[in-house]
Amino acid sequence: MKRLAALLTALLLGAGSAESWCVAVWYPSSDHAGGSAALEDNLDVIDIVYPFWFTPTGDGRILSQAGSSWQERTARWQEGGALVLPSVFSTLSGFLKEPEVSSHLAELLELAEENGFDGLDIDYEMFPLSTLEPFADFIERLADGLHARGLLLSVTVHAKTHDTDAPESARAQDWRRLAAAADIFNLMTYDWTNRTEPPGPVAPVSWVSEVVGYALSKAEPEKIFVGVPFYGYSWQRGRPPATTTNWEAAERMVSSFDLEPERDADSGELLIDLDVRGLARQTITMSDATTLEARLQALPRDLGGVAVWGLGGEDPLNWHVLREQRPASCDAERFRQ
């Protein structure tokens, strides 16, 4: 009955039925202490967890930031029905040459296989354009190794709408080759306005739609996961740099000072202006459940799903929206090649 209801919801939204639609989350993806509880309280709707635990050194060795209880957490999430693909994060690219790259590949495969993970998520960012071919080669080799072991590969990429004048780090990612090798292709569709810029929306719907449209020209739709921000930014006196904030803090401010937020027409994000005597003026952009609902309704229903960044302090109604708006349950077996 739940699957039927989800499919009917998709039809009412004017889209075709989806065979599978999944919710992935990165953890931890904020400093808020409530991130762990948010994950474990919502495992009925969270299908994939990307623990942000590992990073390579400049020569490709893997360093762990997982802490002391990561095995127990992994087992608990898997017992709750989620796939666990640790996110390996790096902004260093020096290991994409021999012999370092072969050693790095061997360490990644050992990490995934010996610790009972379901695969890996590769989140390598800010690489120079000179790594375009070496990075694609590396991902293809990693995919072959993981698939030979029955494991999955997720690749997380910078958002872009084309390759002609996108930032160098985005142009350094060959979406066609990366998506062909990967089982899951995560688009970081957030920070259209980043903390170093004047106030603006984090993820305008029109921009996200352009990014998704470009991805659809490079990748199979069922592999594409659209990044969804659960966080916001606060600018002191309307000037950068901004600081990351969350719905909980913004809602407390609105209630304490009886503020009346506006809503950005494109992104659907709340616009909060704190102008109270005796306090520094703040400008805040924030996502809530209404924002999320509009974002989900704007997405093609045959995509793979969404990937959430910013667990902890989010609008608790976000999880209700995800349960109600997903057009189908997640079929994890379809990822396996």
Key attributes of the depicted protein:
9-stranded parallel beta sheet; alpha/beta; 16 strands; TIM Barrel; disordered N terminus; globular; 337 residues; 5-stranded antiparallel beta sheet
Describe this structure in words.
By secondary structure, the chain is α/β, with parallel strands linked by helices. It has a single domain (2-230, 288-335), classed as Glycosidases (TIM Barrel). It has eleven helices and 16 strands. It has helices spanning 2-12, 35-41, 70-79, 100-114, 132-148, 168-171, 175-181, 205-216, 247-257, 289-297, 317-325; strands at 22-27, 48-51, 54-56, 62-64, 83-84, 87-90, 119-124, 152-158, 184-188, 224-229, 231-236, 243-246, 262-263, 270-274, 282-286, 305-309. The strands form three sheets. It has a nine-stranded parallel beta sheet. The protein has a five-stranded antiparallel beta sheet with strand order 12-11-15-14-13, covered by helices on one side. A two-stranded antiparallel ribbon has the order 3-4. Strand 3 (54-56) and strand 4 form a beta hairpin. Helix 4 (100-114) packs parallel to helix 5 (132-148). The longest helix has 17 residues, at 132-148. The protein is globular, with a radius of gyration of 20 Å. Residues 1-16 have low confidence and may be disordered.
